[in-house]
Amino acid sequence: DVQLVxxxxxxxxxxxxxxxxxxxxxxxxxxxxIGWFRQAPGxxxxxxxxxxxxxxxxxxxxxxxxRFTISYxxxxxxxxLQMDSLKPEDTAMYYCAAGNRYGCGSGSWSLTxxxxxxxxxxxxxxxx
Length: 128
Description:
The chain has no helices and eleven strands. The protein is mostly beta strands. Strand 5 and strand 6 form a beta hairpin. The model has no long low-confidence stretch (mean pLDDT 95).
């Protein structure tokens, strides 16, 4: 199994920044595709970004490209999501998820079904 713990959420004004963290533990060697997702009230869970922790693959959702940056610190076994130029529509519960590396950078990266392990989520609220 893999355990994921998110942190770093909070409330900011539009145009501000936040950095989310996803600390991973357990059998992370076989679940090396880490994705960030978000879900706003009444909406479906949406893929934000994903990274292959073995190196070389980053993908982003269209709504966050050029504003969000995903990265991995191998020493801490932690995936970060740097969120800049935040907008009110970025308000949501943010989750990290872990799955195997196959297709991590492909069109299926944002399918929630490919991630068997999920964290508890961290709330991000952006006010106008």
